[in-house]
Design brief:
This protein is of the alpha+beta class and about 325 residues long. It has 3 domains: about 80 residues, Integrase, DNA-binding domain (Double Stranded RNA Binding Domain); about 80 residues; about 140 residues. Helix content is about 45%, strand content about 10%. The strands form 2 sheets. It has a 5-stranded mixed sheet with strand order 1-2-3-4-5. A 3-stranded antiparallel sheet has the order 6-7-8. β3 and β4 form a beta hairpin. α8 runs antiparallel to α10.
């Protein structure tokens, strides 16, 4: 049974990710609205509906690209559409034309994320673009998937094609999902390499970095319990040192001491080039990771490792206490 609570941004932003598989939570304000949380940290709104004798899980959109109120408002429309019979359309349409409709009507992402998806599809599914969608065969799909270099990308494209053809059936452009039933692409799950001793070596390596902002930003990946995209984009106006808060998220004691020592001569805590914030210091990170003996460590591996260890609490001050205790336990030598 799904864990029930009133959905709000603070709780959803800080839901712990499962070690494997996915968890499901349910909104008490709109009980038909539920959310998947995957081991990769992806959060997706969905509803369940029995359609023509079959239990279906209908995806609404990803959080936070779709906000909570938008998802709640979409529930009834999604359920109504699930019961509609597909409209039979006689007009021919190419795969590219239908993909444009799919993106416009079914993709709920930020503009940058949406453009990234479009570029990826144009690159990997090019052989299908000019074909009539009702003329594409299972062999066509299998050929284009097998030509993709990289199991992870091929698997994502295969899943995307299944979704596209499912939508095409709903809209009456095709009668069967030619992407369904293809052999699943085997992927080697990446093993996240961090443990307590690795975290201690990482902090020691970070402290040897000469650049003050690089050093502080990397330490905030540890002390801040937040992914790199949020850490690098921190703004001074979002900090409240009187209450040890960063927006709605508590700051650990180590984070407060670190940030208070930074010069406040920019809009951003960690300024980058062109007046923007620090974006992707991968060269410095690779240097630090190698020095720590974990060369394949990513920046977000740190966040995911710590969040798996952190004891969750609904009270902010209790979360802050748990942060401090965890960091003291992990970094007792520092």
């Amino acid at each position: 049974m799904a864990h029930q609570f009133f959905f709000n941004p603070y709780i959803l932003d800080n839901l712990p990710t499962p070690v494997k598989g996915f968890d499901v939570v349910q909104d008490m304000s709109e009980p038909r609205l539920r959310m998947y949380i995957t081991s990769r940290g992806i959060k997706t709104f969905f509803v369940r509906k029995r359609v023509h004798g079959t239990d279906k899980r209908i995806l609404i959109g990803n959080y936070p690209d779709m906000d909570i109120e938008e998802a709640r408002s979409a529930v009834q429309g999604v359920l109504d559409n699930a019961l509609k019979k597909p409209v039979v359309r006689r007009k021919k349409i190419t795969f590219k034309e239908f993909f444009d409709l799919y993106v416009a009507n079914r993709i709920r992402r930020s503009e940058d994320s949406q453009m990234k998806l479009v570029r990826s599809v144009n690159m990997h599914l090019q052989p299908l673009m000019d074909k009539p969608i009702d003329g594409i065969t299972r062999e066509d799909v299998a050929d284009v998937i097998s030509a993709i270099d990289g199991a992870a990308i091929a698997s994502r494209m295969q899943d995307l094609l299944q979704s596209i053809f499912k939508y095409a059936i709903e809209q009456g452009y095709v009668k069967q999902n030619v992407a369904a039933g293809l052999p699943k692409i085997e992927q080697k799950r990446r093993v996240r390499p961090l443990n307590r001793s690795g975290l201690q070596r990482l902090v020691a390596a970070i402290n040897k970095e000469e650049d003050e902002f690089i050093r502080a930003s990397f330490l905030m990946l540890v002390y801040g319990f937040a992914p790199r995209s949020k850490v690098f984009a921190m703004q001074w106006e979002d900090l409240d040192f009187n209450h040890y808060m960063w927006k709605d998220w508590p700051l650990s004691d180590r984070a407060v001491v670190l940030l208070q020592d930074l010069p406040q001569d920019s809009f951003w805590l960690f300024p980058g080039r062109g007046g923007s914030h620090l974006a992707d210091p991968r060269t410095a990170w690779h240097r630090v990771a190698r020095a720590a003996g974990v060369p394949n460590l990513t920046m977000d591996d740190v966040y995911k490792f710590l969040m798996r260890q952190l004891t969750w609490a609904s009270d902010r001050e209790e979360i802050r206490t748990n942060m401090n205790n965890l960091l003291d336990e992990m970094l007792d030598e520092y």
